[in-house]
UniProtKB/TrEMBL annotation:
Signal peptide feature range: 1-33
Protein name stated in the entry: Family 43 glycosylhydrolase
Domain Ricin B lectin positions: 386-452
Keywords: Glycosidase, Hydrolase, Signal
Gene3D superfamilies: 2.80.10.50, Glycosyl hydrolase domain, family 43
Pfam family, one: RicinB_lectin_2
SUPFAM superfamilies in UniProt: Arabinanase/levansucrase/invertase, Ricin B-like lectins
Organism: Paenibacillus alba
Similarity field: Belongs to the glycosyl hydrolase 43 family.
Length: 478
């Protein structure tokens, strides 16, 4: 590097340091360069700016890259399978779109079907990447089958091989894969009308089911299995079976994959922070290995199309080998190099906040620095502090301290609440307070006449009509 470049780089670093000192970022003061912050419960964008379509997905680590795969569906009445997309990242935050690894045109059997919960493992003996998934015909969930596809490269176009019930016998819906330390691989899926959870050993090429090795918790109706192994313990995380709606995640453990499983223990909140798990990825770094719970906030739970689903990621806390917990954090910071997952828990600003105290601890209306991702923060940062600018004694604008931009909604576009440059100062950025009793107020948007609404766990920030008189539209502006 020549001297001019070097001094430019120094100036850039000083600028970044100053920016951080001034509270320009919501990461607490200890943030490091390699640390990346994720705003939970949003549909993140890839590095090209497109919404990530990797729902009900899985992750695979190879070389320095994490590969994230997941499903995108068609906008037809049955929400049929369109494709499985693959993204890759070194830091678990910045995702490059890599390839569409399987599409509805990859096989005639995929033309009109549902594919859910794809997962990949690598077979060292055959040098093949093996993709397993849940398979149904287009309009219902009656087939209850598993399907398999292969590729000789991680990001290749996968060849669809077959779909059937395991051992041509067992119903099979929500599913996952697990590869053990000795290379033995397992397919785990909800069986018997989702009442039971079956663990099957795969054949040595991973292309077929070899044997049923365990049936767990018969009659318990568990879905969304995700398995890891840590300290010689296998852990299986599952959800309840309530369609697209949320329910209580539970975990169990055993030192033998085929027997001795514990009973189910609850983890997270009763709604699992409005999410359903899809995978647990170990983040193996220089300092530690963390375990990241990856989950979907299904759009179907809000009556929206599948492709608008959001992502919820949390660290699993191992309090002991037999006790695992998980907490809600609106933002988490992941350091893929060190393996540390750092929760953003420290207030870094003071000022006017737009607060909710229903349902959980105090949370504060926040919008990520780029205006993209609304969230309800549990800390007060420059993303959640606002300056009230009076317009006419009744209406006012809310200027975010972090960006200097206004809280905004364009009713002609969609009901997404975001930020806009302060040159926009008309009715789309104007709000008034409507008394809601008990010290609470509604925030009424001038151009639409609608009220601001949010739910506790993350996003869901939108405008709703004034028939929505519940707590979700009540705020404390203080
Ligand atoms: C819950 C399952 O976990 C999802 O994968 C999906 O199959 C939905 N049910 C469909 O209602």
């Amino acid at each position: 590097m020549n001297k001019a470049n070097w001094s430019m780089k120094l100036v850039a670093h000083l600028f970044v340091a100053l920016f951080v000192l001034l509270g320009g970022t919501n990461v607490v003061q200890t943030a490091t360069a390699a640390e990346q912050v994720i705003v939970n419960a949003n549909q993140w964008k890839d590095t090209s700016g497109n919404p990530i379509q990797a729902h009900a997905g899985g992750m695979f680590k190879e070389g320095g890259y994490y590969y994230w795969i997941g499903v995108e569906r068609n906008f037809d009445t049955d929400w049929t399978f369109k494709q499985i997309n693959m993204y890759r990242s070194t830091d678990l935050k910045n995702w490059d779109y890599v390839n569409t690894i399987l599409t509805q045109n990859s096989s005639p059997d995929l033309n009109w079907c549902k594919i859910e919960r794809p997962k990949i493992i690598y077979n060292a003996a055959t040098s093949q990447y093996v993709l397993w998934m849940h398979y149904e015909e287009g309009s219902n969930y009656n087939l209850a089958q598993a399907a398999v596809a292969v590729s000789s490269s991680i990001d290749g176009n996968y060849t669809f091989l077959s779909h059937s019930r395991p051992l041509n016998t067992y119903m099979s819906r929500d599913a996952t894969l697990f590869k053990d330390d000795d290379g033995t691989a397992y397919f785990i899926s909800s069986a018997n009308g989702n009442a039971d959870m079956n663990i099957y050993r795969l054949t040595s090429d991973y292309l077929n089911i070899d044997a049923l090795v365990a049936t767990l918790w018969p009659g318990s109706y568990r879905e969304a299995p995700a398995m890891i192994k840590r300290n010689g313990y296998y852990y299986l995380l599952t959800s309840g079976a309530t369609g697209w709606s949320y329910n209580q995640a539970k975990y169990a453990y055993s030192t033998n994959i085929a027997s001795g499983w514990s009973s189910l223990s609850s983890i997270g909140s009763p709604s699992t922070y409005e999410s359903q798990g899809n995978y647990i990825i170990p983040v193996i770094g220089t300092n530690e290995t963390s375990y990241l719970y990856m989950a979907d906030r299904h759009a179907g739970a809000f009556g929206e199309h599948f492709n608008y689903g959001k992502y919820v990621w949390h660290e699993l806390q191992f309090n002991s080998n037999t006790n695992v917990s998980m907490s809600w954090y609106p933002k988490i910071a992941i350091n893929a190099a060190t393996g540390e997952i750092h929760k953003v828990t420290q207030n870094v600003d003071t000022g006017l906040v737009i607060k909710k105290d229903f349902g959980m601890e105090n949370t504060f209306l926040s919008i990520s620095y780029d205006g993209e991702y609304p969230y309800m923060s549990t800390i007060i940062s420059a993303e959640s502090t606002w300056i009230k600018e009076d317009v006419d004694g009744t209406y006012f604008r809310l200027k975010q301290k972090r960006t200097g931009k206004y809280l905004y909604n364009d009713p002609a576009a969609d009901n997404k609440v975001s930020l806009v440059d302060p040159t926009w100062n008309g009715p789309n950025v104007q709000w008034k307070l409507v008394d809601a009793g008990g010290g609470y107020a509604r925030l009424e948007h001038r151009s639409s006449g609608m009220w601001l609404r949010s739910y506790p766990y993350g996003a869901g920030l939108s405008l709703v009509d004034t028939s929505n008189t519940g707590n979700h539209t009540k705020w404390l502006v203080q």
